[in-house]
Amino acid sequence: MKKAYKISVAITSILIALITIVACSSTKEVYTPVPDTEVASSEEEFKIEKSGAQLWGEVCNRCHIAPSPADYNDTDWETISLHMRVRANLTEKESKKIEEFLKSAN
Ligand code: HEC
C-alpha cells in the first residue's frame, strides 16, 4: 500500500513536471502578428465612424462626468473643445465632431 502510494506520487510529480515543461517551452504563435501600420489605420477608421454623440459619451466621461450639452453656450463650447482636445488628446476631427454635437444639442 505504501509502495503504491509512493509510485502514484512519483507519477503525479513527473506528469506535473512534463506538463510544465511542455506548456512553458511552447513557441507556437497564439496570434497572427499584424503590422503596426495596419493596426493604426484600422483604429483610425473605427474612430472616424463614431458620431460626435458617441465620442462625447466615451471620451468626455473618462476623467469627469461628461457635461451636458445644455451646460454651456456655443461660444463656451468652442473654448472648452480646444481645452479638452488637449486634455483628451483628440484629433481635430474627433474634437470637431464632439463640438458640433454639443452645439447642436444645447
Ligand atoms: C484626460 C482627462 C479629461 C478628458 C478626457 C476630458 N476632460 Fe474635461 N476636464 C479635465 C480636467 C482636469 C478639467 C479641470 C480643468 C483643467 O484643469 O483643465 C476639466 C474641465 C472641464 C470643463 C470645465 C470648464 C473648463 O474648460 O475647464 C468642461 C466643460 C469639460 N472639462 C468638458 C469636457 C468635454 C466636453 C470633454 C470631451 C471632449 C472632456 N471634458 C474630456 C479633464 C478631462
Account of the 3D structure:
The chain is an all-alpha fold. It is 70% helix and 0% strand. It contains five helices and no strands. The protein is elongated and about 85 Å long.
Counted beta strands: 0
* Distinct helical segment count: 5
- Give the overall pLDDT as a whole number: 85
- Percent of residues in beta strands? under 5%
Q: Span from first to last CA? A: 82 Å
Basic shape = elongated
Instruction: List segments where confidence is low: pLDDT < 50 over at least 5 consecutive residues.
Output: none
Structural class: mainly alpha
Main sheet, how many strands, which sense, barrel? none
What share of residues is helical? 55-70%
Q: What's this entry about, in short?
A:
By secondary structure, this protein is an all-alpha fold. 70% of the residues lie in helices and 0% in strands.
List the helices and strands and how they pair.
Blueprint: H1 2-25, H2 36-49, H3 52-59, H4 74-88, H5 92-104
Helix pairs in contact: 3-5, 4-5
The protein binds heme C.
Heme C (HEC) is lined by residues 59-60, 62-64, 67, 80, 83-84, 87-88, 98.
